[in-house]
């Protein structure tokens, strides 16, 4: 399993979807469920980091374009 810090947005999102599906299916031990939940939380955070970075890049591009238009 690849470290979360190395995952791109799409990979982190896809794995998060798989984690949610596993948790919804149930049948896991408490320890396994907790480990899966923790990985899911970390994956969600990684997705948020990617989205925040993308949002910042878009805002910078818009600001740069507006500065060029003035």
From TrEMBL:
Catalytic activity reads:
Exonucleolytic cleavage in either 5'- to 3'- or 3'- to 5'-direction to yield nucleoside 5'-phosphates
Q: Its family?
A: Belongs to the XseB family.
Q: Give one GO term, molecular function aspect.
A: exodeoxyribonuclease VII activity
Q: How does it assemble?
A: Heterooligomer composed of large and small subunits.
- Enzyme Commission numbers on file: 3.1.11.6
User: What is the protein's name according to its record?
Assistant: Exodeoxyribonuclease 7 small subunit
Listed under GO biological process in this entry are: DNA catabolic process
Task: Kindly report, in one word, the top-level EC class recorded for this enzyme.
Answer: hydrolase
């Amino acid at each position: 399993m690849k470290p979360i810090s190395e995952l791109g947005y799409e990979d982190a999102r896809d794995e998060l979807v798989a984690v949610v599906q596993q948790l919804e299916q149930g049948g896991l031990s408490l320890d396994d469920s907790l480990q899966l939940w923790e990985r899911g939380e970390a994956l969600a955070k990684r997705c948020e980091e990617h989205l925040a970075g993308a949002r910042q890049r878009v805002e910078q591009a818009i600001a740069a374009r507006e500065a060029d238009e003035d």
